[in-house]
Each structure stands twice: as structure tokens, then as C-alpha cells.
């Protein structure tokens, strides 16, 4: 039986790293690439990242599909997606990288680093007022899964006043977690820095919009509320972010993901003085580590053991 690797671009150098790692970890298996000629009846597993719609159809022996990342929203865009078990990456490497990004951006906004960057370009030496301490700044994390929980604890270690929100009630030791629609409003009212680590589903698409920004706290120690989105580009309404920044509803934003990627050259986000922009690198895990993680998922599955990262199709993540 073979394993199909289905990605958007077979020429991407990372594909070679992934393929070589899989062959080393699962030497008894044959690996095939989408777009090549292969026996579709021999494919037992598929490993995918933004594959072309229909690329996973007509695989009669397919048992499971493994995402090469933490996200699986791209899978559900495929109307011909086979009805088999789905798994995503939930490894420590990815989790820790995401937390590093979140902590970095919270500190950047806490210490007003964007202002100093702009001053440096102009050769201006302006000290300004003393920033608040981390303990005086309230961080709200939307999405308290593995990523959100790890980020919450690391921010708390630095002294930030951290709370979270999840779709359903969840208990996280030492971190208050709000739930449901009413809980979201309660979280927003006590949030100076909003971090979005939600999965992208039909329910969450476009959730980061102007009405939501208007519910953020107005009594904080920062110049105003701040948005940090390293989660999914489809969560945010970019026109609303720009309006909120220009109208003073948001004082700043750190954006790593966008609805259209690469971000179009004519986007006003590129040059906005209140925006820190990065090219979807917040949790860019190493290809080799990711391939090893998925190879282990396959080994656990074949051994009849619990496999981490199983996707609940009814929830979309």
C-alpha cells in the first residue's frame, strides 16, 4: 500500500524534505505525489496541504487523511473530500513557535515598539511616556485549544493579566475562560490585547470585525485596544481592521495571516503605521519535524492506539 502526498506545489523545496523524511521513517511504504501517475487503488493514506480539489477522490482503499499543518479548513473546501478520518498536526514544535510569536507581539505593543521603529526611520529621539507593566495589561485569547492554552500560560508567566474564550465551557487551571456568546462579550470588555487563535469554520469566518472591535475595553493602560491574529486569515475582515485603526477603535494590530495570500501589493495594510505585518510565519514548523510527527501518527493508527490531532468533522477542527 502507498501513501499519497498531495500539495499545491510539488516543486516546493519543502516537499523534498518531507518526502525524504517519510521514506526514512516509513521505509516499507511507497510514496507517490499528486499529479504523477500512480495506482489509485493502492493508496491507503494521504498527506495534504492545500491540495487541488478532487485530488483525493477516487481512492477506494483510503483510510485517513493527514494535514501537514495545524489547520484543516482547506480540506473542507474540497467538495469531493473522502469520508475518512482526518488528522492535523498538534506537535510541540508548532505550539511553541506560535507562543513565541504571540509573546513577541504582546511585548511589542506593550513597549510601543512600532513607534520607536518609525522614529528610527526618521532619526528622531523621543522617549515619550513610561509604558505600563505587563501586569497592568489585560490579554484576551480567543481559542483555548492547545495553542491558546500554551500562549496563555507563557503570557501569564511574564505577568500579563490573561483570560481566554472558547466556544464551549472549558476549564484551564489558573486561567479564567469565558464561553459562549455572552462569554465573548465579557472577555472583550476586559481585553486590551486581543489574540485570535480560533480555527476557521463557518461559524468563525469574519468574526474579527468592526462590531467586535467596538466591544473591546476602553479603559486600558495602552493607547487603545490591539489585535493580534496569527490564526487564520479568514477570521478577519481586513476593511474593518483598517477602519478601526483609522478611527481609533484599534490602536494597533499584528497580522500574520490574510484572507488572500500573499497579501496583494495594493493592500493598505502594507504601509499602515499602526500595523505589524508578517508573511504567515508565526508557527512555521520545520518540514522534517512535521513529517516525523505525521509518520508517528500513522504508526500509532496502525498499532490501534489513540492518535493525537484527530479532527471532529462536526466542528470543523
TrEMBL record:
Keyword line: NAD, Oxidoreductase
Domain annotation D-isomer specific 2-hydroxyacid dehydrogenase NAD-binding: ranges: 105-282
Keyword Nucleotide-binding: no
InterPro entries: D-isomer_DH_NAD-bd, NAD(P)-bd_dom_sf
CDD domains noted in UniProt: GDH_like_2
Protein name: Glyoxylate/hydroxypyruvate reductase A
Organism: Hohaiivirga grylli
Amino acid at each position: 500500500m502507498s501513501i499519497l502526498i498531495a500539495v499545491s506545489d510539488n516543486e516546493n523545496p519543502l516537499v523534498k524534505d518531507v518526502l525524504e523524511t517519510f521514506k526514512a521513517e516509513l521505509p516499507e511504504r511507497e510514496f507517490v505525489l499528486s499529479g504523477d501517475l500512480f495506482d489509485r487503488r493502492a493508496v491507503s493514506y494521504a498527506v495534504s496541504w492545500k491540495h487541488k480539489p478532487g485530488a483525493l477522490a477516487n481512492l477506494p482503499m483510503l483510510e485517513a487523511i493527514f494535514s501537514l499543518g495545524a489547520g484543516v479548513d482547506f480540506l473542507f473546501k474540497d467538495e469531493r473530500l473522502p469520508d475518512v478520518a482526518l488528522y492535523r498536526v498538534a506537535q510541540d514544535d508548532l505550539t511553541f513557535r506560535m507562543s513565541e510569536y504571540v509573546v513577541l507581539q504582546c511585548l511589542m505593543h506593550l513597549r510601543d515598539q512600532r513607534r520607536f521603529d518609525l522614529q528610527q526611520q526618521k532619526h528622531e529621539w523621543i522617549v515619550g511616556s513610561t509604558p505600563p507593566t505587563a501586569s497592568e495589561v489585560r490579554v484576551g485569547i480567543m481559542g483555548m485549544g492547545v495553542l491558546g492554552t500554551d500562549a496563555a500560560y507563557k503570557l501569564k508567566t511574564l505577568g500579563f493579566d490573561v483570560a481566554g474564550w472558547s466556544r464551549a465551557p472549558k476549564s484551564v487551571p489558573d486561567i479564567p475562560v469565558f464561553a459562549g456568546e455572552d462569554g465573548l462579550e465579557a472577555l472583550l470588555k476586559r481585553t486590551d490585547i486581543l489574540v485570535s487563535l480560533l480555527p476557521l469554520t463557518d461559524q468563525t469566518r469574519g468574526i474579527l470585525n468592526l462590531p467586535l472591535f467596538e466591544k473591546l475595553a476602553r479603559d486600558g493602560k495602552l493607547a487603545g485596544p490591539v489585535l493580534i491574529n496569527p490564526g487564520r486569515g479568514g477570521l478577519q475582515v481586513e476593511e474593518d481592521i483598517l477602519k478601526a485603526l483609522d478611527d481609533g477603535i484599534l490602536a494597533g494590530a499584528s497580522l500574520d495571516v490574510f484572507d488572500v495570500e500573499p497579501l496583494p501589493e495594493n493592500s493598505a495594510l502594507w504601509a499602515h503605521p499602526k500595523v505589524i505585518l508578517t508573511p504567515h510565519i508565526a508557527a512555521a514548523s520545520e518540514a522534517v519535524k512535521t513529517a516525523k510527527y505525521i509518520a508517528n501518527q500513522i504508526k500509532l493508527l496502525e498499532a490501534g492506539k489513540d492518535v493525537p490531532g484527530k479532527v471532529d468533522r462536526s466542528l470543523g477542527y
